[in-house]
Design brief:
Radius of gyration: 20 Å
Low-confidence stretches: none
Number of helices: 11
CATH topology of the largest domain: Quinone Oxidoreductase, Chain A, domain 1
CATH class of the largest domain: Alpha Beta
Number of domains: 2
Number of strands: 15
Helix content: 25-40%
Strand content: 25-35%
Distance between the termini: 11 Å
CATH superfamily of the largest domain: Medium-chain alcohol dehydrogenases, catalytic domain
Shape: globular
CATH architecture of the largest domain: Alpha-Beta Complex
Mean pLDDT: 96
Structural class: alpha/beta
Largest sheet: 7 strands, mixed
C-alpha cells in the first residue's frame, strides 16, 4: 500500500510517499480501505513545524479521513465489513472529559494519521458516516465538523434563534455556518473577500462583514444585534482577534476558543466584567461525532469542498492550505 510520511522538519515538499505492508488485524481491530482525507490547519502546522510538537519520525499525517471496512477482528461488534467509517480524532476519547491518555492518541499527531491507502483502527475508534455524503464530504467530519459541533452545541448551547459570530471561511467556520443553518441559528460571518462573503450568504449567513473594510468589525456585530452582542463566538483567530470577539458577545455569552492563527496578548478584564464563558475547544469525543452525524443525516447537509487532489498531488493540497484562498475544505482522494 501507499502512504505519506513526515520524515523531517523540511516541510511540505519533503513529505515522502512510500510503500508499506497492509496491516493485519487482531480480534478488536477493523481494517479500513481509506477513500479520502481532508486537511486541517493543524495538519499543515504539523508538517511544517514538527520538531516543537515532539513528532516522532516517520509519522503519517492527517487526522481526518473516511474509508470502507474491509476486514474485522473476531470480537468486533460496532461495525461490519462494508460499512463506511471515519476514525475519531482522539482514538480513545469516547465520551466525558478528555484525559492525558486521550491526548496521547491523536491521529496525525501523537500517532499515525490517515493519509494512507489502508488504516487499522480499534473498533472503538471509528464511527459510521451519513450515507448521503460523498467520500470527500465525509472525510471533513472528524476534526472540522466535530470542532464546530462541540463549540456550538456542546459548549455554546445554541438553539433556534440564537446568534453566533464566525470568523473567516476556513473549514471550521464554514462547517459551523452549515450547522447554524441546520439548527435555525443566526450566523454573522467575517472575511476579507467579498466573493467569499457572497458564498457565505448563499449558505445562509444572516449578516456578513468584510473586516478589511470594517476593521472595527466588533462594532458592526453590536450594531447588527441591537447593541446586545451575539450569544456565542466560534473564535478561530486566537489572541489577535479575541479582544474584538469579547466585545462582540453579549454579557454572560460564550466563546469557543479554537484557533491559534494570530498573535497578540489577552487582557482578562473584559472576560470578568462580562461574566463570559470561554471554552477551549480541542475537537471532541465520539459521542459528539455520532450526535452530529444524526443531525447531518436528518438535514441532508453536505460539507463544502473547495478542491480535491489525488494521492499523487497531495503536496499541492498543503500548499493550497498555506495560501489560504480556499472556501470550506481541501480533500485528497485515495
Amino acid at each position: 500500500m501507499k502512504k505519506y510520511q513526515i520524515t523531517s522538519d523540511r516541510g511540505i515538499d519533503d513529505l515522502q510517499l512510500v510503500e508499506a505492508d497492509i496491516p493485519s488485524v487482531s480480534e478488536l481491530d477493523v481494517l479500513v480501505r481509506m477513500k479520502a482525507s481532508s486537511i486541517n490547519y493543524r495538519d499543515l502546522a504539523t508538517i511544517e513545524n514538527p520538531t516543537p510538537r515532539n513528532i516522532s519520525f516517520p509519522l503519517v499525517p492527517n487526522s481526518d479521513g473516511v474509508g470502507e471496512v474491509i476486514e474485522v477482528g473476531s470480537k468486533v461488534t460496532r461495525v461490519a465489513v462494508g460499512d463506511r467509517v471515519c476514525g475519531i480524532f482522539f482514538q480513545s476519547w469516547v465520551d466525558g472529559e478528555i484525559t492525558s491518555t486521550d491526548m496521547a492518541n491523536a491521529l496525525g499527531g501523537t500517532i499515525d494519521g490517515v493519509l494512507s491507502e489502508y488504516r487499522k483502527f480499534d473498533e472503538n475508534g471509528v464511527v459510521k458516516v451519513p450515507e448521503h455524503l460523498t467520500d470527500a464530504e465525509a472525510s471533513t467530519l472528524p476534526c472540522a465538523g466535530v470542532t464546530a459541533w462541540n463549540s456550538l452545541v456542546e459548549k455554546g448551547s445554541v438553539k433556534p434563534g440564537s446568534s453566533v459570530l464566525l470568523l473567516g471561511t476556513g473549514g471550521v467556520s464554514i462547517m459551523a455556518l452549515q450547522i447554524c443553518q441546520m439548527l435555525g441559528v443566526k450566523a454573522i460571518l467575517t472575511s476579507s473577500s467579498d466573493e467569499k462573503l457572497i458564498r457565505a450568504k448563499a449558505l445562509g449567513a444572516w449578516h456578513v462583514i468584510n473586516y478589511k473594510r470594517e476593521p472595527n468589525w466588533d462594532l458592526q456585530v453590536l450594531e447588527m444585534t441591537d447593541g446586545v452582542g451575539v450569544d456565542h463566538v466560534v473564535e478561530v483567530g486566537g489572541a489577535g482577534t479575541l479582544s474584538k470577539s469579547i466585545n462582540s458577545v453579549r454579557i454572560s455569552g460564550s466563546i469557543g476558543l479554537i484557533g491559534i492563527l494570530t498573535g497578540g496578548a489577552i487582557d482578562p478584564t473584559s472576560i470578568l466584567r462580562k461574566s463570559l464563558h470561554v471554552h477551549g475547544i480541542y475537537v471532541g469525543h465520539r459521542r459528539m461525532f455520532e450526535d452530529m452525524n444524526r443531525a447531518i443525516s436528518a438535514h441532508k447537509m453536505r460539507p463544502v469542498i473547495d478542491h480535491c487532489y489525488s494521492i499523487a498531488t497531495a503536496r499541492e493540497a498543503y500548499h493550497a492550505m498555506r495560501a489560504a484562498k480556499h472556501f470550506g475544505k481541501l480533500a485528497i482522494t485515495l
